[in-house]
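Re: folding output
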Amino acid sequence: AQVKESGGGSVQTGGSLRLSCAVTVTEYPYSIYCMGWFRQVPGKAREAVATAGLADHITYANSVKGRFTLSKDSANNTIYLLMTNLKPEDTAMYYCAVDPIRYDCVSASVDWGQGTQVTVSS
């Protein structure tokens, strides 16, 4: 599948951004078990921010609960991440992930987007 993110940018502390991720299925059969957002800063491992898996149950990282909201448009294979009350520690490259095998977006078959940079200044 092709995964394309958009919506990153630079904001000040307390600001908001909305990320979008559109998935285009390029091979068949292909089932989407999980779609989600991850982020990574240089020198650190990629971490899950929010994922939507079985029955579209959404799991959030503790660090973003109450501030970030993942929403999904299943008909169009698109997910969004509304990020509010942004903090400098949210600065990272944000990646969209699509998993055709597992409900938690961690299989070796995950398709990744190129990433979109989010920078939060104090």
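--- second protein (sequence, then structure) ---
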Amino acid sequence: VQLVESGGGSVQAGGSPRLSCQPSGHTYSSNCMGWFRQAPGKEREGIAAISTGGGSTYYADSVKGRFTISQDNLKNTVFLQMNFLIPQDTAMYYCAAGIMWCGLAQSEYDYWGQGTQVTVS
């Protein structure tokens, strides 16, 4: 299973880009989709997750109120709407899919994308 992220790039502070994540290749059934990010010199952190069945969402404090995770079940796509970006949001953003659990811990995810870079200036 391969996940493909899109929508990253260079953005001005205050901008509102939207990231997308779609599976490529084999289909799979996930319980949870999440977004993680890793800034240079820092550990990867979970920032948003959504339960694919019930739609429950989870956010890290660092993005709560600014970022929104959503899904299009028909297209098997998950989105991350990012608003009010600040330079500290600069990072590689990764999409991930979890089969059983749902939350913001990396250990809860089974499949990962290659990431898309978001640079805020």
